[in-house]
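Private note to self, pasted from the team thread so I don't lose it. Backbone tokens:
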């Protein structure tokens, strides 16, 4: 891994692909242990979680369904403080279901909090959260995150689905911004 430039920002190597895949395999085993017999519905948060979800599903040999939701909260490197649902939930698909949310990163937790409200309002039976990355120092809520790939600091990161103004999602490693 070497330093890269994404759009107008420089990024340094942070997490190699092998480490990411090892953590995803561990999360998959934990999920199977907990919900393999519940035929869960996995809700994948677009756009960022697509690479995490693809690798996760390669490791889940169990009966399950997958659907996608999309909320937008970031502009550039900062949160807007508002969660806009761009691709919403199918209420009929949620009612009385065991849900596992698949997210790329939870930092402040604002977007996830909005999704949790929507899921509860639509009658989800149970809800678990799986995130590839978690920023505990930025987290502002008290809901439980059931499966965490890696805890990281408050650096802005890109790669493996995470973006900077929609660029850099295709990188197979994760890089942190150089300021």
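Design output:
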């Amino acid at each position: 891994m070497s330093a890269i430039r994404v759009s107008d920002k420089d990024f340094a190597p942070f997490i190699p692909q092998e480490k990411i895949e090892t953590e995803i395999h561990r999360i998959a085993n934990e999920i199977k242990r907990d919900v393999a017999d519940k035929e869960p519905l996995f809700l994948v948060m677009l756009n960022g979680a697509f690479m995490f979800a693809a690798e996760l599903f390669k490791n889940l040999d169990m009966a399950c369904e997958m659907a996608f939701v999309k909320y937008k909260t970031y502009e550039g490197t900062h949160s807007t403080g508002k969660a806009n649902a761009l691709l919403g939930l199918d209420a009929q698909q949620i009612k009385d279901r065991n849900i596992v949310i698949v997210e790329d990163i939870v930092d402040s937790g604002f977007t996830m909090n909005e999704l949790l409200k929507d899921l509860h309002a639509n009658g989800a039976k149970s809800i678990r959260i799986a995130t590839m990355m978690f920023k505990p120092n930025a987290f502002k809520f008290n809901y439980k995150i059931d499966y965490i790939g890696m805890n990281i600091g408050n650096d802005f990161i890109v790669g493996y689905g995470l973006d900077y103004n929609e660029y850099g999602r295709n990188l197979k490693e994760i890089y942190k911004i150089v300021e």
